[in-house]
Specification:
The radius of gyration is 25 Å and the shape is globular. Helices cover about 75% and strands about 0% of the residues. By secondary structure, it is mostly helical. The protein contains 12 helices and no strands. The chain has helices at about 5-25, 25-40, 60-80, 85-120, 130-135, 135-170, 180-215, 220-230, 235-265, 270-275, 280-295, 310-315. The chain has one domain. The longest helix has about 40 residues, at about 85-120.
Length: about 325
């Protein structure tokens, strides 16, 4: 069986154009854009960070501000010591609020990913029906993402603790010696390896395992086992090519999105507006994953699009399905 990343790109681009510019109307864009917005929550997508520089200030003001740091820290420490109960309760409330907000966004994002996939493969702009229909697999994905977050946090604590233990003699002596250097280099390399491993796992989960979950109505563990045994291990080289090409296309798409956002005074960078305005980009990359998978398993052929001109004309004349919100 031949697996081609360029064929997947071609089919994904054709389906994106047919779906958004031949079948959908403007109202459908906003509905599917809302699903894309939900899918992007808790993932950091669609936002831009700006930094301002104040290096033009004179050196005397910088030194004065540096001299004020020690007294300020001393006063802050005294205040915390005298209000320890208030600080503890306030800190716990802040942690609780952040945790609840993070879980809510993760829950919406997990459900939204399947709603967005459903809209792409069924060519139907809907919210209510896929929201309820994808509840089971959405909750399964949510649990997996929470587990990955705890694993990541636990691994970071272990790496940090191991680094401190290795470097403790130098820390106690207030010296950056051989032990501190060893701890910094070894834990740094392990941290890079951890980040790379988690990035790969998350990418495979979001790009492919979710498609298997959607098609076969599997839990995340069952879908991951099916994907690894029947797809990933059979074509590992093609998956490397898939991500190399996706990274290259992602860089190009990111530059275009950034330029258009800047030209519109960052209006297009606003979260929901960003999802609607750049919906073709989101649809293309999701369709790219589906069109790549369908070459390995005919049961995963969720997108029906032909590259022949005759089929293109015939399918283009097909009435668009009714939208459901």
């Amino acid at each position: 069986m031949t697996v081609s990343v360029t064929k997947a790109v071609e089919r994904a681009f054709l389906w994106m154009g047919r779906l958004l510019f031949k079948r959908f109307e403007i109202g459908d864009w906003f509905v599917l854009g809302f699903c894309a917005f939900l899918a992007s929550l808790a993932s950091g997508g669609g936002s831009f960070n700006y930094t301002s520089s104040s290096s033009s200030g004179d050196s005397s003001s910088a030194s004065d501000s540096g001299n004020d740091i020690a007294p300020a820290l001393h006063q802050a420490g005294e205040w915390v010591s005298s209000h320890i109960f208030l600080v503890t309760v306030g800190g716990a409330l802040i942690v609780l609020i952040v945790a609840v907000l993070w879980l809510t966004l993760l829950w919406l994002s997990s459900r939204g990913r399947f709603m967005f996939l459903d809209g792409i493969v069924t060519a139907r702009a809907a919210v209510k029906d896929p929201w309820h229909r994808c509840r089971h697999i959405g909750n399964s994905l949510l649990r997996a993402r929470i587990a990955l977050a705890f694993i990541s946090f636990g691994a970071l604590i272990i790496l940090g603790g191991a680094g401190v233990l290795i470097a403790w003699p130098d820390i106690a002596a207030s010296d950056f010696g051989a032990r501190a250097l060893t701890a910094t280099l070894s834990m740094g390399l392990l941290l890079i390896a951890l980040i790379l491993a988690l990035t790969i796992v998350n990418a495979l989960l979001m790009d492919f395992v979710t498609v298997v979950m959607y098609q076969y109505d599997m839990s995340v563990l069952a879908a991951a086992e099916f994907f690894v045994k029947n797809l990933l291990l059979k074509w590992p080289g093609q998956y490397i090519l898939f991500y190399l090409l996706k990274i290259a296309m992602g860089i190009l798409a990111g530059i275009i999105v950034w330029l258009l956002s800047c030209l519109t005074c960052c209006i297009l960078a606003l979260p929901y507006i960003h999802s609607v305005a750049f919906l073709p980009v989101s649809v293309f990359f999701k369709a790219y994953s589906v069109c790549f998978l369908e070459q390995q398993d005919p049961q995963l052929a969720l997108i029906h699009v032909s590259t022949s001109p005759e089929d293109e004309t015939a399918q283009g004349a097909t009435p668009a399905p009714d939208s459901e919100q």
